[in-house]
Amino acid sequence: MTKEILHQHLQELHTHLIDELLPFWTTRTIDEVNGGFVTHFDQYGNDSGEDEKSLIAQTRSIYTYASAHRAGYGGGALAELARHGVDYLIGTMWDEEYGGFYWMTNRRGEVTNDQKIVYGQSFAIYCLSEYTLATGDLRGIKYARTVFDLLQKYATDTTHGGYFEMFLRDWTLKGPGSAGGDRKTLDAHMHLMEAFTTLYECTRQSIHRRKLLEVIDLLTKKIMHPVYGTGIPQFWTDWQVAPQIKFDVIWGWDRFTNDGVKRAAEDNTSYGHNVEFAWLLLHALTILEIPHEVYHDQLRKSFAHAVDHGVDWKFGGVFVEGSHAGEVYDREKEFWQQAEVLIGFLDAYRIFGDERYWQAYENVHRFVLDKLVNHSVGEWWPLTTRQGDPIWTHMSHSWKINYHTVRSMVQSIQRLDALRVISR
Amino acid sequence: MTKEILHQHLQELHTHLIDELLPFWTTRTIDEVNGGFVTHFDQYGNDSGEDEKSLIAQTRSIYTYASAHRAGYGGGALAELARHGVDYLIGTMWDEEYGGFYWMTNRRGEVTNDQKIVYGQSFAIYCLSEYTLATGDLRGIKYARTVFDLLQKYATDTTHGGYFEMFLRDWTLKGPGSAGGDRKTLDAHMHLMEAFTTLYECTRQSIHRRKLLEVIDLLTKKIMHPVYGTGIPQFWTDWQVAPQIKFDVIWGWDRFTNDGVKRAAEDNTSYGHNVEFAWLLLHALTILEIPHEVYHDQLRKSFAHAVDHGVDWKFGGVFVEGSHAGEVYDREKEFWQQAEVLIGFLDAYRIFGDERYWQAYENVHRFVLDKLVNHSVGEWWPLTTRQGDPIWTHMSHSWKINYHTVRSMVQSIQRLDALRVISR
User: Fold this and answer.
1) pTM reported for the whole predicted model
2) What is the number of structural domains in chain B?
3) Do A159 and B207 touch (CB under 8 A)?
4) A207 vs B160: CB contact, 8 Å cut-off?
5) Interchain CB distance below 8 Å, B156 and A158
6) Can you give the CATH number for the domain in which B201 is found?
7) Long-range pairs of A26-29 with CB within 8 A, sequence gap ≥ 24
8) Which residues of B touch A162 (CB under 8 A)?
9) Does the keyword Isomerase apply (chains A, B) (predicted)?
């Protein structure tokens, strides 16, 4: 890797972010009538009309605009956009009676699903902390802290540790099975780590630090595979591995068979998730001021599994998922996994100095810019064939939105920039 | 056991409670000058002058007076006494800045130890819930709920489950070793079960029910011995058994060697504690409306260990402690263990119908009334030789106080009364 190559990659990302990605959103997402954001767009970038505002999409949008503003983009306009989102989030999605944010409203702001889902609450903490860090508006951190307190009171399992995920409006734990009340997941805990990191960055309170350290302990000691260091998606309450099922309240767009079961439900791991976990852990350690060497074994395993088994050296990008030992199950390409491995492979290259991480980065970088970006409108195709032909074609819906794509560009640019300084 | 014998025992307890025990306290404990209670008395019942008001002694006093009032004693005077204690507890021992109750003040109400000790907070929840149940004064349950929320936020270990115990004023976890920050104990968890039971009895809130069920799960699955069903005093954070040590902030009057270590620090269990645990569990199940049959195996083991190994059939009473398998280490007699097994043996007799529990009850009953009660002043000797001669002679100090003795009389009378109805 030469300075020229580095510069060229940096330029490509910068151009995509400034000329394509951010304009896609700033020109169409504000709901001037009802407040908050419109988050459903088809392949042409037209409003596809779904009558919903999800907690995930609203909070991820706030994160996107606040973090891009904090990174120096938008000249103030993105901070205003974030503020517009926070007004809706606090004003319309907050439950004044029981506390916490509702899961779903329609576009007019009427609550259509009043459940309290930890995944969504974690994004509220994440975006509201980021928002205060970016703008100084203290409303953000006030609500972030309140949600943190609610999770400690209602969501923790004081028998086995960790957090339950699925609650009714009044924070009563939901039932077993697809209701989700008898399971714990990698997803929720990883996003709590992400959220508590930014919460702690904003408050520097010792309780936020301690709970961040505790969730890191859980992830590294119980949730990641003891041999392979890869993520295990679902557990029973007592941390025995549970077969991966689809929940009634979904937050992602994972593919399941028609009966809601994964093909290899008990030996399944996602390449992009593992790399996302590893770079989020690295970031947490930076904020905590803990040397990353303490977690080298975990980091190495999570990064290496994706490079060794997940990268498609023939057609580019990373596959969807496979076994912990290495067999690939699903060779299609999901947008968010590409977004996360861009950041993660650059981190891996920085801390391990191994050229194959740069090659993996380059590979995915090319796949993203040549295949995944729908350049005519500016956002990314959500799912493609192994070769890069779109399978799903929406530019956004309640779960896709812009957190992965914009964060990937902002964070990758920062990392390429840092590498450029070092390589001078 | 005949109706006459039952009646005779009932009368003896009633006479002791009404004529000796309650008057001991009502005539001397009120601090009219500074508020709260004086809780240090020598063997003659004279104020022994120690300049301290401990969270334990103040909260246990409130519990004693409130619960005795709820049980029908005192004609209103005990409720007034409880109110006097609550005024001091809330007015002087509450930390307005960080929340929670301070560990120690002097008699004038100046804070001398501002640490937040979970053991003490659990007694605050217990007594304040009991106080509201007894008097209807909602200040009690308001503070009880707030302390519950603080414990969920600051004291839980979200990695391994359970509660840490030792915190600085601002709820920063204390360090390892004798500071206690790296250990978990049977004591704290058992008293949290006791506290959450009365909290739930008062509020009937589902979160209080759930956290009570979780702590019961912890106790029965991790804290009680997997084979013997007996209590293991101390654990490391990850629930590995830890050698029993003396903490810097002590709450009891346990005997240790001069270096603060127990003789059999890793194979040690207390007969009275096990029986106290079992009857508190039974009581929790009653409040939860869960049939006690669900926990029969646990209950049987905890009760049977004390009867099989702890009862001194020669000199009366129960010994201090021994191994889980049965060997007795310490044949002296502690007051609180006698108090707790009276209640527990009556419960065991009721649910198992086994005559040996009655015999054990009778044995301890006689030992208490013939040896342990200092009839000339009305309270119990804290520690005697195996034969029943006093070793320690104070009638009260910060850790002894009246919760064990008065509760034992109130609860045993209720149980004897219920047996009398059945035996008619």
Assistant:
1) 0.94
2) 1
3) no
4) no
5) yes
6) 1.50.10.10
7) A26/A74, A26/A77, A26/A78, A26/A81, A29/A61, A29/A81
8) 158-159
9) yes
